[in-house]
Amino acid sequence: MGATMIWKNEAYVIDTDPKNLDVDVIHGFLGASYWAKDIPRSVVEKSIRHSLCFGIYHEAKQIGFARVITDYATFAYLADVFVVASHRGKGLSKWLMGCIQSHPELQNLRRWMLATLDAHGLYKQFGFNVTAKPERLMEIVDMNIYSKIAKENRL
User: Fold this and answer.
1) Among 38, 55, 87, 104, which residue's CB has the most CB atoms within a 10 Å radius?
2) HSE of 23 in the Cβ direction (CA atoms, 13 Å)?
3) Would the pLDDT of 5 be above 80?
4) pLDDT at 1 over 70
5) Which DSSP letter does residue 33 get?
6) Contact 35, 106 (CB under 8 A)
7) Cα separations in angstroms, 137 against 43, 52, 71, 113, 148
8) Dist. CA 135–CA 142, nearest whole Å
9) What angle, 0 to 180 degrees and rounded to 10, lies between the N-to-C axes of helices 23-32 and 41-49?
10) Largest Cα–Cα distance of the chain, in whole Å?
């Protein structure tokens, strides 16, 4: 939806233009991550097509990523947030979160959600909290789905 957004900060750029995304970098990082281990490239490509994506670039090379799954009216789910190790410790995750939350198409949403194992401190700075009423939330989770897909594709 809407026009491509661009933010600049010294030698770094964040933008929402899907044409600039380096799917090899994204797939490589996600495939090794704890939350998307072994994710097939086709799934990454499909997830990008159906999300609002934010790429972080240094000298035109992709070094970070995040995507927002949203209806642009009431709900957003933040997923697949990363900065490659060689560029961590420079405030890029905080800058990325600020850009995401300032995006004009993501204003006045009733609910934002995400899942994280180890970045609670980062997200808390941006208003995220542990679910106040977990009894209201339900989920279906299959952390082995990508291994199953890979196995089926080998058969």
Assistant:
1) 55
2) 13
3) yes
4) no
5) S
6) no
7) 25, 24, 19, 11, 26
8) 20
9) 120
10) 49
Three-class SS state of 47: helix
pLDDT attached to residue 148: 84
In b/e form, how buried is each residue of 26-49, taking b as 16+ CB within 10 angstroms?
bbebbbeeeebebbbeebbeebbe
| Total residue length of the chain | 155
Please tell me whether the overall predicted TM-score, pTM, comes out greater than 0.85 for this model.
Answer: yes
Strands 75-83 and 111-113: parallel
Q: 7 is written with which tokens?
A: 């933010």
Token couple for 133: 């009423």
Q: Which residue reads 């959600």 in tokens? A: 113
pLDDT in tens, 52-99: 999 999 999 999 999 999 999 999 999 999 999 999 999 999 999 999
| Both structure tokens of 61 | 């090379």
At 152, the amino acid letter reads E
Instruction: Give all strands of the β-sheet with 61-70 in edge-to-edge order.
Output: 6-9, 12-15, 52-58, 61-70, 75-83, 111-113
pLDDT for 2: 72
